[in-house]
Design goal:
Layout: H1 3-37, H2 40-66, H3 81-110, H4 119-147, H5 152-158, H6 162-190, H7 195-224, H8 230-241, E1 246-258, E2 261-270, H9 276-293, E3 297-304
Parallel strand pairs: 2-3
Antiparallel strand pairs: 1-2
Helix pairs in contact: 1-2, 1-4, 1-6, 2-3, 2-6, 2-7, 3-7, 4-6, 6-7, 8-9
């Protein structure tokens, strides 16, 4: 792991711990406010914050498990375990966060409860916006630094580290939910209709469901296995092609075994005049050059193969 990668990992842990602390405090405050005021949307928001807290714990756990060294049972390491827990987080947001929100909203629309003093709701919502806004700012700043000049949506699609964009999505959904909850509390008291508060709870549930679907889709792709960034693939192909003993590069195939770990398999046509010993030394030299060019390459396999015998695969271009 390079110093830059280690520094990025530390900053990301700070983002997760910050989000966890904020969500735990907010969840307690929301549940107290919901108990005093009887607000459905506040109860929903409390569940939302509690689920988010559990999600950050799972992501931290997944990061810890993913750092385990390779062994006989898992020769390429445990890095992709983080992707599994990211997928679990998406399922929890959908099943618990969205499910409870929609159910509570439907229940309060069907059997409205008398409205109580909403002042405490507004106080809690104001504090929650401040805390969630701080957490969102940290997550957005970290993700912006990681993505560079890449557009936001493309950066999310190309990201191989789910912890960063999951916190960003969760905090964005939380801020949207707080806005809807505030409008729901105000409108239900303004028109003296508690069913509006229930409708706000359903709206929050719908937002959570949409976020969960997006996160599940991205996490599923990582869990199944995604190739490295096209720039990395092109860099690898360029290093191999530049070697004087290589006639042609047939294909470069990659897969992320962790956010900062890449497995690469290369098929190349070697000069026919090379002896077996010269070919072995050339492969060792190529591996050294590739690791110097791309430190994230954890496993490198180079296969000498005549061009007409190889299944030539085009190097993928940037995602749309």
């Amino acid at each position: 792991m390079t110093l830059a990668t280690l520094a990025a990992r530390i900053r990301q842990d700070i983002v997760l711990y910050g989000a966890l602390a904020a969500n735990l405090g907010i969840a307690v405050a929301k549940f107290v406010a919901a108990g005093i005021s009887g607000s459905s949307s506040m109860l929903t928001e409390g569940v939302h914050s509690l689920v988010d807290s559990g999600n950050q714990i799972l992501l931290l756990y997944g990061q810890k498990r993913a750092k385990r060294a390779p062994d006989a049972a898992h020769p390429f390491g445990y890095g992709r375990e983080l992707y599994f827990w990211a997928f679990v987080v998406a399922i929890l947001i959908f099943a618990v966060g969205a499910g409870v929100s929609i159910y509570e909203g439907w229940k309060h629309i069907r059997t409205p409860e008398p409205l109580l003093d909403p002042v405490i709701n507004y106080v809690v919502l104001g504090v929650a916006v401040a805390l969630e806004g701080t957490s969102w700012t940290l997550a957005a700043r970290e993700f912006a630094a990681a993505k560079g000049d890449m557009p936001w949506w493309r950066a999310i699609r190309e990201s191989k580290d789910p912890a960063g964009f999951i916190v960003l999505f969760e905090d964005s959904a939380a801020l949207a939910g707080l806005l809807i909850a505030g409008v729901g509390v105000w409108a239900s008291h303004h028109w003296n209709d508690p069913r509006i508060d229930g409708a706000a709870s359903i709206a929050i549930g719908v937002i959570l469901a949409l976020v969960a679907i997006i996160l599940a889709r991205e996490s599923k792709g990582l869990l199944i296995g995604e190739r490295a960034d096209p720039e990395v693939i092109a860099r690898v192909a360029g290093v191999v092609a530049a070697h004087p003993g290589v006639v042609a590069v047939n294909h470069v195939r990659t897969i992320h075994t962790a956010p900062d770990s890449i497995f690469v398999a290369i098929s190349a046509d070697f000069d026919d005049n090379l002896t077996m010993g010269e070919g072995e030394r050339m492969i060792e030299d190529l591996e050294d050059r590739l690791r110097a060019a791309e430190p994230r390459l954890s496993s490198i396999y180079i296969r000498p193969e005549r061009r007409e015998d190889a299944a030539v695969v085009a190097v993928p271009g940037p995602a749309a």
